[in-house]
Amino acid sequence: MQELALHILDIVQNSITANANLIKIEIAEDIRNDFLTITISDNGKGMTVEEIRMVTDPWFTSRTTRRVGMGLPLLKHSVQQAAGSLVVSSEPGNGTEVIAVFRHAHIDRPPLGDLAGVIKLLIGANPGIDFFYRHKKGDREYILDSREVKTILEGVSVSNPEVMNYIGEMVKENLREISVK
To answer: Tens digits of per-residue pLDDT, 78-90?
Structure first.
């Protein structure tokens, strides 16, 4: 995949398929120590030890609609290309956590990409799921919690196109703000 945002979208789709109703996406950019960490955690159905062992094998999938699973294997490849690491932890009934660590300045690290568009899409396309998004860059931080957004909207759906566009613009603006030195 060309962008980390697309990896995030793909991994979060696994969480949605696992019946999670709370998905956390956390990105930490530590420029000083040259790390970019992406953590995706959910409260879905979780995986067995055997599934965790096989989850980065492209020939393994729990889906019945296709015979290959490419999300985590592609993320693992991207991480390895950028001198990083990938850890998947899970327990049946207790959700899953995926932690991908990249060397931030590595020439082969994919760019972050359209994070605002991915967050907007995830929240708007899945109004029954709560999303918590945190992005840290140095000592600056941006947090978006869809539960707070839903409370403020007082019954207006997050799937409303105007709301989705507002969410996308809000995320984009706040990501610009935390990137200012």
So the answer is: 999 999 999 999 9
